[in-house]
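Reopening this ticket.

The earlier resolution said the output was attached, but the attachment link was broken on my side. Pasting everything inline this time so it's all in one place.
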Amino acid sequence: MKLYVSFAARIRAMIDEGVLRPGDKIFSVRQASQKYSLSISTVLRAYLLLEQEGVISSHPQSGYYVTPRKRLQKRGSPLAKDINLSEVDASNLVLTTLKSIREFGTVPLGSPFPDPQLFPLKKIHQYEKALTGDEGEWGVLSDLPPGNEMLRQQIARRYLENGMDISPDDIVITHGATEAITLCLQAVAKAGDTIALEAPGYYALAHTVERLGMKVAELRTDPHSGIDLDALRATADNVRIAAVILTTNFQNPLGFVMPDEKKQALVKFLAEQKIPLIEDDVYQELYFCEKAPKPAKAFDQYGLVLHCSSFSKSLAPGYRVGWTVAGRYREVVERLMFLNSLSLPSAPQIAIAKFMQRDSYEQHLKQLRHTLRSQYILIRNVIEESFPPGTILSIPRGGYVIWIQLPQGIDALKLYRQAIDNGITVAPGTIFSRKKDLTNFIRLNFSHLWTLAIEQAVRDVGAMVVKLCDESREGGVI
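Inline output:
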C-alpha cells in the first residue's frame, strides 16, 4: 500500500473511532509530517485524498477540519425517528436539531448558532487565562450587578461610536441576551399579561413569555419592513398589551431592517400608549451595508425602550455575556439580576473588555461582516440553482439566516425529517409562529465557513424539495 494511502486510512480510522469528531481541527501538514515522520508531500497527498472523499475539508488560513455528515450518511440519526410530525413542539425540535449536530455531525444548516472559527476566541481565552495571576482585577463583589465597570465602559463607547449617548451606568450585564430579555419582561409585566410578538419571529421569545406565565399575541410582520403597525394598533385597542418584544435589525428569520421612519413611528405610538418596547438587537453588528442601522432605542425619549444585546453573535459565542440598557426600568432590572443570578462570572467580562480595549474589535467585525456577506451570496446562488421554480427567498440585510418560501404543497416538517436522515439540519417554518401556519417555509443559516460539504448539503436539500414537488404533483396537490 502506498504510504499516503496508509496515512489517509489512519486518519480515517481516528475519525470512525471518535478520536477526531466532526468539526474538529486535525493536524497541520507540518505537525503531521513531524509527528508521523512523513514527508510533507506524503501528508498533502493523503489530505487531498481525504478531501476528495469528503472526510475532511480545508479552510484557507485556518487548516483542515473533519467534515460533518459522513457518520450520519451511513446510519441516519436515531433522534430523527422520535419526531412526531403531526405534533411538533418547537423546543423539542430545536433540541433534537442541536443534539443531532453535536452527537452525529450533521451539516448545521438549521443551527441558530455561528461558527466558532469566525471569532478571535483564542485571543479572548488568553486574556481570561492571564487573570488567574492577577487577582486584584476580579471577584464576586467587584462584579455584582450592574456588572464589570470596564466592560460597561467599552459597551458605552460602542454605543457612542454608533451615535448614541449611553452612560456605562445605564448598562446592566447579563447571562446573554435571553436573560436580558427575561429580566426586562419581569420588570415590565407579570403573569397573565399579554405580550405582543412579531410572527414569524424567533421561537425562543414566545417560549420565554409563556414560561413566565404571560400570554402571546402575534402580530403580522412584513418580510421587508417589520411589524405591521396597523395590526399593533388594532390589537392595542382590543387587548391590554403589557409590552412588545421585537427585533428591528436583521430579524430572525426574515433578515429585514425596519426603516428609521417606521422605528420612530413605532416608538412614538408605544410612548403614547405607555407600552414598553423590549428590543432584541443581538445581530446589530452584522450589517452588510456601509453603516450600522439605528436601533429603535435611538428614538426613545421617555426611557420606555429596553435595548437588549450580547456578544454571542459578534465576538464570543459560548461566553454568554449580554447586556441591557433598560431606560426607566434599569434599577428594577439590576435588582432582578441580583436576585436571579447574584452576578456574572468576572473573568469572561474582563477578557471581552480587554479584547475590545487592546485589540482591533472593529477590524474583527469588518472581517466577520465580509465573510457572512460572501457566504450569503454563495448560499443564495446555490439555492437558486438547486431549488425548484416557485421558491421565494428573503433578502437579508445582515445577520446570517435566509428565509425560504417553498412551493405550495411542500411540507417543511417532512423535509426536515428527510434532511436530518441524510445528515443535514434545516429549520422548518412552523417553529417560528404559534399558529403553525408556515408549513411551506424553512430557514437556512450561512454562519458556518463555506465548504464543499456545506455546498453539497444545500444542493441535497434542493434535490429533496424537487422530489417532494414531483410527489405532490403526482398526488394532485400542486
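Reporter confirms the inline version is readable. DSSP finds 16 helices and 14 strands in the chain. Residues 361-386 form the longest helix (26 residues).
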